[in-house]
């Protein structure tokens, strides 16, 4: 079950939960309102045939898909690699991940520049909007397997912060001020 919470400011291991004291959770509804991050629940056992994923792909125009595994065994220079995923960045397109197995954390900035940590595991599909500052880390399980989707030819290029002059960033900030629920309707 996906959960999201505001992070503490501790610089200890990025793979820990980093809850505030006391913890401050945020509902998925508020997460969307505050950041534009969308969430879908899929069934990992039946997604290939139950039609939910194919409907979503069709509606949202996802024409590309692949699968990636991230673990100590699969990645050379694992420690370095997960540090690089954890560098704050944005993309010119949505980042779409459907977790098949394992778990991890997507951290996104809200409008007040606070980090919100989103804990994802099997069955969670998350859509991170273009232009939002974010980062990813594995958790202490050190393993995630996920599908990636894209509209058209995939572009995975990250732009590290600061990237405030980029068009996608300006568009995102505009939506942030306008309100996401409103922008989506
Ligand atoms: Fe990213």
TrEMBL record:
Q: Which family does it belong to?
A: Belongs to the acireductone dioxygenase (ARD) family.
Q: Which organism is it from?
A: Manduca sexta
Job of this protein: Catalyzes 2 different reactions between oxygen and the acireductone 1,2-dihydroxy-3-keto-5-methylthiopentene (DHK-MTPene) depending upon the metal bound in the active site. Fe-containing acireductone dioxygenase (Fe-ARD) produces formate and 2-keto-4-methylthiobutyrate (KMTB), the alpha-ketoacid precursor of methionine in the methionine recycle pathway. Ni-containing acireductone dioxygenase (Ni-ARD) produces methylthiopropionate, carbon monoxide and formate, and does not lie on the methionine recycle pathway.
Q: Which cofactor does it need?
A: Fe(2+); Ni(2+)
- Kindly state which keywords UniProt assigns to this record, in alphabetical order: Amino-acid biosynthesis, Cytoplasm, Dioxygenase, Iron, Metal-binding, Methionine biosynthesis, Nickel, Nucleus, Oxidoreductase
Q: What is its main location?
A: membrane
Location within or outside the cell: Cell membrane; Cytoplasm; Nucleus
Protein name (Swiss-Prot/TrEMBL): Acireductone dioxygenase
